[in-house]
Amino acid sequence: IELKNVMHWKTEMVRFMMAYKFAVEEVSTKISILQQEFQHIHDYNPIEHVKSRVKSPESIFKKVQKKKLPLNLPLIQENIRDIAGIRINCSFVTDIYRVADMLTEQKDITLIEKKDYIQNPKPNGYKSLHLIVQIPIFMSDRVENVYAEIQIRTIAMDFWASLEHKIYYKYNKSIPKALRDDLRDAAVSANELDERMERIHKEVNQLKEDDHLNGNEQKPV
Ligand code: 0O2
């Protein structure tokens, strides 16, 4: 293999990974703007935490093998759409849809696919709203439309998913039935907690609104 070919391949690889880093940065900035502006206008923040990552080359390679793709960068770009990943944790289920709308209504974000595992949970109990979006990244000599996956879930859904993810890998992807049943029960409990918290949240806001009408000003929860 010629050195110049190796150097060219390395430059392309770094450029390939950079585009995803920029996509994560763009989406993260958008989320940060929403958080700050929403807080300012409504005196309330629907977003609790945001985590982001760019898939490692090793994980990309594993997915390439799983999907039986050839090692070709444009094909990988088109078929592996979660290399740039952003996870948003909200306090309440209604906030999930509110945040999803605020993001997808932005002109430069193209919604490619929406997977609503909240309306349609996975058989194991997994719940989350997944958005596959495309965002333009303006570089020195071109614009690249980069895919990113935005996962939006409540804190309770995230708690469940993190534990399930650990167990899934601990048992090398085949969880024993008793544990699977336990996890499904835990998912039901997480869902009940979400519903309960949202009910309390609404009640408190109603009380605040009544206070407001009576001229007794207090912050929303
Ligand atoms: P990681 O390590 O989190 O990145 P795809 O394989 O993405 O082309 P798929 O499987 O239809 O297609 O995508 P889906 O259903 O949108 O799931 C993608 C991601 O959602 C996963 O990424 C997980 O992060 C999360 N996820 C989906 N199902 C589950 C689940 O049952 N439990 C948990 N804990 N997380 C889930 P990766 O690449 O699998 O893993």
Automatic annotation (TrEMBL):
Coiled coil: 183-210
Record keywords: Coiled coil, Kinase, Transferase
Lineage of producing organism: Bacteria, Bacillati, Bacillota, Bacilli, Bacillales
Protein species of origin: Gracilibacillus salitolerans
Biological pathway: Purine metabolism; ppGpp biosynthesis; ppGpp from GTP: step 1/2
Protein name per the record: GTP pyrophosphokinase family protein
Location of the RelA/SpoT domain: 52-175
InterPro entries on file: GTP_Pyrophosphokinase, NT_sf, RelA_SpoT
GO molecular function terms noted in the UniProt entry: kinase activity
Top-level taxon: Bacteria
SMART domains for this protein: RelA_SpoT (SM00954)
CDD domains: NT_Rel-Spo_like
Pfam families, per database record: RelA_SpoT
One BP annotation, GO: guanosine tetraphosphate biosynthetic process
